[in-house]
Amino acid sequence: MTVRVVVADDQAVVRAGLRTVLAAAPDIDVVGEAGDGAEAAELAETLRPDVVLMDVRMPGTDGIEGTRRIRALRDPGIRVLVVTTFDLDRHVYDALRAGASGFVLKDVEPEDLQVAVRTVHAGHELFAPSVTRRLVGSFVPADPPAPAGPAAGLTEREREVLGLVAAGLSNAEIADRLVLGGTTVKTHVSNLLTKLGLRDRVQLVVFAYEHGLVGAAGADG
């Protein structure tokens, strides 16, 4: 199955480079290019691509607003993968809140970018580990508040698993960290989504940041 991609970046040379990298994969087809978030949303509505590769900082309509507009289309088949130059960027967090499925850095290896596109297309979330660690260190309160609201109903183990999810660890990595079985971790993640009324791991990440549930154990990963 071919993954249809729209590339959104305000710099033509960057768009050309991303197109070249993705076109090298036989199962990825770049079907459109956009210079800002508004154009990306318009192409998403017209072309219905599988993945929009979205820059964050663009003049005019930035990638955050572009992501919001794409999510407003309410087409679950269109996924947004944020590509950023900065490994510490508050806007990346805002893009996740807007509905992006993950983020990678622009210096990512070509093969890894292709894998990232396939990963989000398959319905999974993807986070560049270096960005996640910096987000944890910069945007998590030094003295987090006591759990309240939905967070208050979580068990200690669930809060621990949630913190590690937000730190960018996979289920397998969480299992190794906590010395648990992979199935057990998967069950914890499923229970978290149900208890908190959230859709996916991206929303778990945002929830954990906003409720101060990303602890030192996650940041060290």
Topology overview:
Elements: E1 3-8, H1 12-23, E2 28-34, H2 37-47, E3 51-55, H3 63-72, E4 79-84, H4 90-98, E5 102-105, H5 110-121, E6 126-127, H6 129-139, H7 156-166, H8 171-178, H9 182-196, H10 201-210, H11 216-219
Parallel strand pairs: 1-2, 1-3, 3-4, 4-5, 5-6
Helix pairs in contact: 2-3, 3-4, 7-9, 7-10, 8-9
Modified residues (4-aspartylphosphate): 55
GO molecular function, one term: DNA binding
Keywords: DNA-binding, Phosphoprotein, Transcription, Transcription regulation
State the gist of this model:
The protein has 11 helices and 6 strands. With 221 residues, the chain is of the alpha/beta class.
Walk me through this protein's architecture.
The protein folds into two domains: 124 residues, Rossmann fold (3-Layer(aba) Sandwich); 76 residues, Rossmann fold. α2 packs parallel to α3, α7 packs across α9 and α7 packs across α10. The chain has eleven helices and six strands. The radius of gyration is 17 Å and the shape is globular. The chain has a six-stranded parallel beta sheet, with helices on both faces. The C terminus is likely disordered. The chain is α/β, with parallel strands linked by helices. The longest helix is centred in the last third of the chain and has 15 residues. α1 links the parallel β1 and β2. It is 51% helix and 14% strand.
